Amino acid sequence: MIQLTETLLNPEVTRRGLLITGGRPPSPPLIDQARQCCHFTLCADSGAACLFRMGIFPDLIIGDMDSLAPDIYAELQKSHCQTVVLPTEKDYTDTQVALEWLFDHDYEEVVLLGGTGSRWDHSAGNGFLLTGFGRRNKPIVMWDAVNAMRYISPGHYRVPASDHRLSLVPTDDAGIGLSLSGLYYPLEGADVPFGQSLLISNEFSEPYASIELMRGDAWLFVSRDA
């Protein structure tokens, strides 16, 4: 069984990285919360602006620097902040390259901030990065002010109750098989096809929700209304 936290982290992880990327800027309290549970802070391109405005310098910046304001980039260079500059024309996003760097440097889990925003293509692409990396046993948890999202594969998971709603979205085109307990809408040995909304917005009814995923993979969310 994998016991997750309210924010869907695996508490057994001893080496966790933080990646701040260039979507909707995370709030200073959310950044502080993430930094407290992470051991290294990497920014992808304009994600560095959030930290700069808080007077914080990241451990590393990766990106083509096309969306980071020139004056902020100049100040970061003056601070001797370590930087990896990527070409503007490349096959993968700055976010994916930064994630690969963290896992290549033995971080066991990554918290991703700024992964959603006004660009739906980037938001959807970042969601599926959770699936792509997760299928390689490289877990990512994406946070914003009101949501936490994690990819899960077959196994037994427990999530502590909170005032958030719990949702699952199948990401396997063959659907998923699962059982749910500790929730207002329990299920036992249910088959849920891909592309269905059956598992959206469940409520906690006991101190812990239990998710037994027997087949397929999915996105797990805990969310509250803004």
Automatic annotation (TrEMBL):
Keyword annotations from UniProtKB, A to Z: ATP-binding, Kinase, Nucleotide-binding, Transferase
Keyword Transcription attributed: no
Pfam families reported in the protein's UniProt record: TPK_B1_binding, TPK_catalytic
GO biological process, alphabetically ordered: thiamine diphosphate biosynthetic process; thiamine metabolic process
Species in which this protein is naturally found: Peptococcus niger
InterPro entries linked: Thi_PPkinase, Thiamin_PyroPKinase_B1-bd, TPK, TPK_B1-bd_sf, TPK_catalytic, TPK_catalytic_sf
Enzyme class: transferase
Protein name, per record: Thiamine diphosphokinase
EC number per UniProt: 2.7.6.2
GO molecular function, one term: thiamine diphosphokinase activity
Top-level taxon: Bacteria
Chain ranges of the Thiamin pyrophosphokinase thiamin-binding domain: 155-218
